[in-house]
# Entry
Amino acid sequence: MSRLICPFCGPRELREFEFHKTLPNAGHTPFEQVYLRVDSLTLSVEHWQHIAGCRAWLHIERNPSTGEVLVCRLARSEGVS
Amino acid sequence: MKGPMPHYSALALLRARFQGAGFWKPLWTGRTLQDAYDVVVVGAGGHGLATAYHLARDYGLKVAVLERRLVGYGNVGRNTTIVRSNYLLPENHYFYEDSLRRWEKLSSVLNYNVMYSPRGVVDLCLNDGDMIAAARRGNAMRLAGIDSELMELEALERFAPELATRGNRRFPIVGALVQRRGGTVRHDAVAWGYARAATAFGADIIENCDVQGLRTEAGVVIGVETTRGFVKANRVLFATAGHTGMVGTMIGLPLPIETHLLQAMVTEPIKPLINSVLIYGHPGHGETYILQSDRGGIVMGGHLDGFPSYTREGQWHRLEDVVQGAVDMLPQIGGLRILRQWAGTNDMTMDGSPIMDRIKYDNVFLNAGWCYGGFKTIPASGAACAQLVATGTAPDIARGFRLSRFATGHMLDERGDGPFPVRL
# Structure
């Protein structure tokens, strides 16, 4: 995983992107959403931003054991702005 | 030291000279898995081995250390060997200081040379703001009786003459916070020394034994399921830093931990150049810490890679950041070639401080979340965690590391930047 494919800019170096956070997956209370994680060896769902490019917010799903990017799309497309 | 291991001393070395290779025995034995134990420790890294050693020595318990791979395969063999106790918060600096005091004596306690080298840890300051923050941290440490020295430029130049402090620098170095007792310890020797000492007190170290779950009976844990069958245990300790998130998933307990990568690298060996451990926070490209190994290689590391990963392969852009910082600090090493680069998985907690507590069941304990401070706390953590597991109560210096602090709001947020596992 040394590049991400931005929906606007195409394949770009990883340095241009900034990891923002892992999406909550441990429950619905604010405490669970902010602090707790259910860890997985095969799936991590995250928000990133193309900070040194078009600055789009991205929804990314990755396999943290291999670094493979499974999904990279605009976060906006699921109602997150 | 009792048991089958020879006691190492100058006299013993002399005897070994005449006795030949027969003197040298394997460092640890006891590889047969028994059916039942007082305590099963999961993970034969620094913390697991140190805890097993104290459980066997101080409390006379029958201990097994179960390791998925090999002794010292994880972060105890992947860190940059730095030990220090220059932390701001009391809960942290008393604990890290307890550890530093144990490092000073560890070679004789374990009868194994861990090569503690108090060469000084130098936190460089680049502006007035850095100096003010360093003075605050240094004063907090001095109030706790921990050595710390705020150096202005002239004193720093005498202490670390190799630094490029003069000339036309974009970010001039103006001073440093120095802890002289900080330094390095040979990391592999720590794992081997604790493994040797633990087995001398009767602990069994079982490698290639993957723990796959807990077995409960009427809501009480009675042992662990492993790839080598069921092992009965009165108490279970998880000391699995780097994969604690997976332990949480395995036992159905979401934890305030994410797993991130930290990488390090070493250059070809050169003659002695760097006297101390230099830490350099650069506004342009993050952090670099740098030291020279006893073999002469320049060891460097920096920030986390910045996103959750189990791959153990560092990202190129972070390597670039680290090297840029190093060359900025010491332009004379710019021509060196990097021989090796590696990464370790870190338990990053939501406040940057560790967790040492009972979890979910009465007889299950967790020693985890050491972020990037795991190596330097091994001796203190072993003693404190053994007390927790043996008596059910952690010693006062580890009381702040309870898991419940995240729910009650008693965070130990050393960096003061909120509930994030990583902030670059």
